[in-house]
Amino acid sequence: MRVLLVDDEEELVSTMAERLSLRGIEADWVTSGEEALKRAESTSYDLAVLDVKIPRMSGLTLKTKLQERNPEMKFIFLTGHGSEDDFRAGTAEAGEGNYLVKPVHIESLIEKMKAALGAG
Questions:
Q1: What share of the chain has pLDDT > 70, as a percent?
Q2: How far apart are the C-alpha atoms of 41 and 30, rounded to whole Å?
Q3: Whole-prediction pTM value?
Q4: Cβ within 8 Å of residue 88, ≥6 positions away
């Protein structure tokens, strides 16, 4: 499983990548939608974990752009805000089970990732 993590909170996303790597999951991380698109040009990912509210390009817009390049890629959304509107938008894109509110327990995230890829 190769995963791309996208969140503008650098400490959070780098720590999450490190914890996933310790559990044998290849995880790259970036802090913007633009960086995510560049990274996806050179690397193929099975799944992306996207913050819903990243500056300049929302996680929902980023999902659409990444999916155009890789229709097989799966997505999980994270939010720190958890408004009802965000919940509706995120679940409409990824399904209720693939929308998580921060802070996220790493084992819960891994379970969601495996389920999204049909391996759980």
A1: 92
A2: 14
A3: 0.89
A4: none
43-96 pLDDT, tens per residue?
999 999 999 888 999 898 999 999 999 999 999 988 886 667 767 776 777 676
With 0-12 / 13-18 / 19 or more C-beta atoms within 10 angstroms meaning exposed / middle / buried, residue 41 is exposed
Strand boundaries in the chain, DSSP class E: 2-6, 26-30, 47-51, 74-79, 99-101
The secondary structure of residue 23, as a DSSP letter, is T
Going by their DSSP bridges, the two strands 2-6 and 47-51 should be labelled as: parallel
Q: How far apart are CA 31 and CA 6, in angstroms?
A: 6
Residues in the chain: 120
In the three-class reduction of DSSP (H, G, I as helix; E, B as strand; rest coil), residue 5 is classed as: strand
In which order are the strands placed within the sheet that holds 26-30? 26-30, 2-6, 47-51, 74-79, 99-101
Q: Alpha-carbon distance 100 to 52, whole Å? A: 10
Looking up tokens 């974990």, which residue turns up? 49
